[in-house]
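Morning. Coffee machine broken again, so started the prediction first thing and wrote up yesterday's gels while waiting. Chain of 136 residues, entered below exactly as on the submission form.
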Amino acid sequence: MTILLIRHTPPNAVPDASPLPVRVGGHRLACRDCDSLPALLRCLQRAQRSRPALVLIATAAVDAPQWARYGRALRTALEALPAPYIEMASNDDDALDEHLHPQHAPAARVVCSSGRADACRLSLAIAARRLQAMEG
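Came back before lunch.
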C-alpha cells in the first residue's frame, strides 16, 4: 500500500525541503509537489489512477479568482479520489473544504500554524494509525 502526499506550494513560496520518511507504518510514501491549482488538479487526477491507500494534501493560500476558475474541477477530482484523504493547512481559510465544499469531508483536517513540517508529521502519524486500523 502507498500513502500519497501532495504538497501544494505556490511558485512565489519557498519549496518544502523537509525530509520525508521512505515508509510510514510499513507503507511506502510517495510525494508529489505542485505549484498551482492546475498542478494540484493534475496530482489529484493521477491519484485516481495510482490508487493509493490514503492521500495527504498540504494546501496553501490561493486567491479568490483562482478558486473561482479551478474550484469545480478540483472538487470533482477530490470527490473521485479512490481513498480517504487528510488535509493539512496553516489556517482554516486555506483548507480545500472551505472553498470546494465536497460531498465528503476529509478523514482529518490538520490545521497547524507552527508550520507545514509539524502538520506533515502529525498527518503522517494519523495516516499510519488509520492504515493500521484498516488492516486489523
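The chain has four helices and six strands. Going to sketch it on the whiteboard this afternoon.
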